[in-house]
Amino acid sequence: MKSYFKKIQVAIFTLLEGFRVTLPHLLKRGKTKKNRNISEPGYFETGDYAVTLRYPMEQIPVPDNGRYRLHMEGEDCIVCDKCARICPVDCIIIEGVKADEPLGLTTDGSKKRIHLPVFDIDLAKCCFCGLCTTVCPTECLTMTKVYDYSETDRDDFIHHFSPMNEEEAQEMLSRKKEALK
């Protein structure tokens, strides 16, 4: 019976000690530190501010040269396959079908001669090294500033960037297989 009351006494003292440590921080909670650029003076100074941000209303600014989520402009891709070849984890899948006539020009003036039915990036495999963006001759593959993305299903990490819809892509790929036979 003595040990039972001793445990209750220890629990009460532990709870009071936690309140003693937490209460001063709770009273300072009203003051929040404004987001500043890292190059501004006093960026690393600590003060009497709340540590947490009210996410997603408040966000820490991201640097311009960061490597975050990949994005591809399908209309500008010339299907050179350089990005898929340089990828160290093979997360980029490209399939092209040669066109009978030129398809037009990209935004930088390169001629498009190949249809792009499949351009998939598996962001679950991607190590965000940025090699694919540096070798892209038309600069259609870029890194965006989106860094906070999560999915509940692994299949949702596969992003399809083909300018064609799924039916057109399947039809074009089946015609390519028939032509190879």
Question: What structural keywords apply?
Answer:
Alpha-Beta Plaits
Describe the structure.
The structure is a single chain. The protein has 2 domains: 1-61, no CATH class; 70-180, Alpha-Beta Plaits. The longest helix has 26 residues, at 2-27. Strand 3 (104-105) and strand 4 (111-112) form a beta hairpin. It has 181 residues and is of the alpha+beta class. The protein is built from 4 helices and 7 strands; from the N terminus they run H-E-H-E-E-E-E-H-E-E-H. The chain has a 3-stranded antiparallel sheet, covered by helices on one side. The radius of gyration is 27 Å and the shape is elongated.
The CATH architecture of the largest domain is 2-Layer Sandwich
CATH class category name of the largest domain: Alpha Beta
Low-confidence parts, pLDDT < 50 over ≥5 residues?
Answer: none
The largest sheet has its strands arranged as 2-5-7
The CATH topology of the largest domain turns out to be Alpha-Beta Plaits
What is the overall pLDDT average?
A: 82
Largest sheet: 3 strands, antiparallel
Radius of gyration: 27 Å
Distance between the termini: 87 Å
Derived structural class: alpha+beta
Q: What portion of residues belong to β-strands? A: 15-25%
Secondary structure: number of strands: 7
- What's the order of the H and E elements? HEHEEEEHEEH
Shape: elongated
Q: Helix content range of the residues, please?
A: 25-40%
**Oligomeric category:** single chain
- Distinct helical segment count: 4
Overall tally of domains: 2
